[in-house]
Amino acid sequence: MEAHLTFLASIVILAHLAAHDDLGRGLKAQLFSITRMFVSFFEWIGNLGMFCVRLVSATITPPYEGKEFLRQFDELGSKSLPLVMLAGAATGVVLTLSTRDSLVRFGAKSFLPAVAIFSILKESGPIITALVVSGRAAAGIGAELGAMKVTEQIDAMEASAVNTYKYLAATRVLACVLMLPLLTLVADFLGVLTSWMTNTLIEPISLQLFVNRGFKQMTFNDFLPPTFKTMVFGLIIGVVSCFQGLRTSGGTEGVERAATSSVVLSSLLIILADVLLVRLILVFFS
After folding, report:
1. Residue ranges per domain, the chain?
2. 233, 138 in Cβ contact below 8 A?
3. Global pTM?
4. Which of 142, 136, 44, 18 is nearest to 83 (CA)?
5. For residue range 162-184, what is the model confidence (pLDDT) as tens digits?
6. 3-state helix, strand, coil in the chain (%, to 5)
7. Cβ–Cβ contacts within 10 Å for residue 55, how many?
8. Which in 65, 111, 198, 245 has the greatest CB count within 10 A?
9. What is the rounded CA–CA span in Å between residue 59 and residue 274?
């Protein structure tokens, strides 16, 4: 009897130790996974920093790729313009319908033109334009450069003494930086126009009166900083998408990852940058 009890106790102890051993191995695996995640993050940051240094050097050092820059400028602008126009027009309609109901409740219906125009010009127009261009341009740049990378076209260009940072990256980044403010102006114009049209369908008001009421209290400090902050958004889109595209590996799956990560990272960084830029604009221009 005592022998049986001793045997059962030994089994229980061994099972207990085995369970704790599995727990320890699982904990070690989790810690190792978290460590690898942190290492990969800082490695990505370091590679991005080195990419930015080489990009700046390629941008400011002659000769300049003027023809390729104009081609990318036209490519980004003309292909993104319809989406930006649609997004700006939809923003004006939705903003007018949503704010009108709230203002009517509080007896402030006469402030609708000012609220709509201020909202569109100061925040809605710039951020919507940046996110739309991010979804379209970042995916295109990331996929295009990624495909060139996995098919060794970039290696062939470098073997031919072509500076790929100057020809491929710098031209696209500059095109994004300079195109975003122009596209933002288009989105702002369509947003204000559709805001007036929506308001007119509900309660007729002349365009002149709508614009006068909306811009009565507006100054250049309310208009210029939000518009030019989109240059930062363009810089984020260009740098992130070019960086993700040029470091692509793994064939077609790598191209897909490059395009997806370009859009996701660009959109996330745009939102985070917008928080910081709004605060800086309020500090220096209010």
Report:
1. 1-61, 65-285
2. no
3. 0.84
4. 136
5. 788 888 888 999 999 999 999 99
6. 90, 0, 10
7. 20
8. 245
9. 25
